[in-house]
């Protein structure tokens, strides 16, 4: 059964109209992924030396036993955000004389062929050989590594099950993220280290097979959960059920802004209902934690000494959704672009509606990042300057760059490792977005001080807000001049 399913999957890919485009994008991304894996391998090989020399860890195996739980929690979050559901069209086979259980087993086995399944092997095999094996011996160190591996696989199936249970609901996703990140926050503020309690379990795995058996049983339990969930949904009348991301949310929120507000309401509903756009929103919420790793407790002067770095952090936190979602500015509307093209002022109102949504999400992220003021009131300056630049300049920069050879895409597919809509512009889009504020910041900071430099960047953003109508009109004229070419490209969508 599995070879036949694999053959059909390959035929579908090869015969697709977008095969050539997907192949080129896949090669470019694969080169990037291989590059990252080489860095990971290099980091893993020298992990023991890094822990001993840079972090002055005397007992590496004991430290790894404490850190194992944090690695698994971090991997769980990464899997939840980036890991795709098995890309297998179950509905095509439900009418055939094939056991549903066999289809589900193939689906779940196929989902294991993912870069995430290799992470635990790449990161921990070298340090197991160099530091764990000399202490516990090759047999028990293998048991320790196998325990981590099966817990990682259990995390894989548990993520698939939770995605089905939560089904994209915002509140459920937020609660899950809060539960998983609490141990990191408690460790960061030196409240409690849960690694001290779980270290006994992982330490026992290096002297007895009991933890390995427990991890295998947990893996089997997680597999059974998702298998039963998929099997219970393997009916044609259940395949097209859609559940709202936030029930009742996004209805007429921007209606006061006229036609642009109407299009903005539609855009917001599309963001909340479809996998890829919703994934970008969840990723933006996750990256709010980026400040915990970058900001440091200290006086205002010490923060301002590195204001250039913290300005980048502020722009990154406030703008992450704009960059991810905005790079496909027109590609989201590939199936309906002709509708906007023939409407009176349709293209202009579409652009205004999108900018309205992107600015609103940026403000939302700015408000959620407000608690960072606890680490220093100057952080509020960085975030405010970033917000002004984002709304006044950043949205228009992304809009203009996204009009450069936009590609069609399917908004129902997963956010990560999906290369539809990606062109050369997407690989370069972040460069001018992040470089432009430093064209103003660096000379002003050199001539005066960081406060004057930040004020100049903020004024730059305010200027963009004041002249927003003229900038939008310019982008509208650009798009109208190439609308037929863009429309023709979108009609080649798969």
Features of the shown structure:
494 residues, mainly alpha, 2 domains, 23 helices
Task: Explain this structure.
The chain is mainly alpha-helical. It is built from 23 helices and no strands. Mean pLDDT is 81; it is low at 240-251.
Number of domains: 2
**What integer is the average pLDDT?**
81
Largest sheet: none
Low-confidence stretches: 240-251
Cα radius of gyration in angstroms: 25 Å
Global structural class: mainly alpha
Count, helices: 23
The total of beta strands comes to 0
Distance between the termini: 27 Å
Shape: globular
Query: What fraction of the residues are assigned to beta strands by DSSP?
Result: under 5%
Order of helices and strands: HHHHHHHHHHHHHHHHHHHHHHH
Residue share in helices?
Answer: over 70%
Element layout with pairings:
Blueprint: H1 2-15, H2 19-45, H3 47-53, H4 60-82, H5 100-111, H6 115-136, H7 138-166, H8 170-188, H9 195-204, H10 210-232, H11 258-273, H12 275-286, H13 290-294, H14 300-305, H15 307-326, H16 337-342, H17 346-368, H18 378-402, H19 424-428, H20 430-447, H21 450-466, H22 468-481, H23 483-490
Helix pairs in contact: 2-6, 4-6, 4-7, 4-8, 4-9, 5-10, 6-7, 7-10, 11-12, 11-17, 12-15, 15-17, 15-18, 15-20, 17-18, 17-22, 18-20, 18-21, 18-22, 20-21
